[in-house]
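Hey, can you fold this one?
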Amino acid sequence: MVYDANVLYGNTLRDLLIRLAMAGRLQARWATGILDEMQRNLAANRPDIPAEKFAQLRLLMNAAVRDCLVEGHEPLIEGLKLPDPDDRHALAAAIKSGAQIIVASNLKDFPAENLVAWGIEARSPDDFVLDQIDLDGRVVWACVQQIADSRVNPPETVDDVLDASERAGLVESVAALRAG
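Sure. Predicted structure:
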């Protein structure tokens, strides 16, 4: 699967999606253009964060997930049709990598009729994480616990991570985790 820039923007959601990939449950992929878009949006909305931090974030993301970086997809971009032409790079990365899913918050920009020919489906992060819970909720719980354990300044609990995940749009996923 390919993670679109908008699901990599928020810290907690990004952390969870990367940890799910690190757990070996899935092969997460992204491209330099996706990271560029994420970084541009973060820099625009968080001018207080130094550019070096963004560069470090990219390095850490690429080091955390084996074979995550999709390359050689650029020639496909021009021939693709999507409502927002700026999202074509994510579809091109998905096609090049053989991904079956694009995880994106902007589903309207990835209509099924534009993806079906490629055997690709767009899923919201909430639906995607809910699928992971259905497959093995223990793995998702372990990832949430790892996030809580990693947050020491200030310290966070599992409930804090779940609350942040809910604010990030994982409403059904958080409800499933809390129920089960």
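Residues 2-124 form a domain with the Rossmann fold fold (CATH 3.40.50.1010). Let me know if you want another pass with a different chain boundary.
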